[in-house]
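sorry for the late reply, my laptop died twice this morning and i had to redo everyting from scratch. anyway the thing you sent over, i finally got around to it. pasting the sequence first so we're on the same page, its 255 residues, then the predicted structure underneath. double check i copied it right bc i was rushing
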Amino acid sequence: MRLFANILAAVAILLATAAFSSNTNINSDDRFDRHGAIVLHNQSQPIIYPVFSADSLCEGLPSIINTLEQRHLLASFFFTGNFLRDTAHHSIIQRIIDGGHYVGAHSNHHLQLAEWDEARTARVSIDSMLRDVHLNLELLADWGIKPDSCRWFLPPFEWINAEQSHALTIRGLKVINPTPGIVIYRDYTTPDMAEYHSTDSIISQLFEYEREHTLNGVILIVHPGTQDLRTDKLYLRLPDIIDSLTILGYRFDRL
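ok and here's the structure:
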């Protein structure tokens, strides 16, 4: 009887695992970091996934959209509730949606979910995080973006811990973060910061990484808005970056 019970338990676990994988559309060709976020998607394919996130700053969005439209490319955009509520952004949001790009959640109030320490100690409870994300999804629904088509989630500040990722994943969201080793997401830094990266150094590092590892399946996060102190805006160099990577044989797509 004990053997039979153990077999039934094992079958139940397998069925639950299969159902979970089906519901969350986990791709065996994806790579996760230790915090439960997808950091490479379809990594066997020469496809790059450009991601743009915004909370309050977005002066570069028109330039970015023009670049994508001119090259007939689709990308992914993640907006906070703060961004979605600002009527000054409504026309560009509609243009992005009409263009067929992916638009997803980036938290309602741009909460910092975890401390900057090595353990990523939680700053908010799981319930508070889930309420915040739910409000973000409700705002997206007001734009006609249905929950079943809004499954990718970019954590605010691109920072999350494993418990938080798990809580979102079991509710059907797929957490993403920048591909490790690529510093393009540092395009928000300003010269007064110790971690400042110039646009030239960011682009140079991107192509060094490509030569050593390839960019298959990478998630490239670019900020469409930066502080005035940063005068070398990386988004203005997107045309050259995209064209150079296209020559190398890469394609670009939305998540």
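The first strand starts at residue 31 and ends at 32.
thats about all i looked at so far, will dig more tmrw
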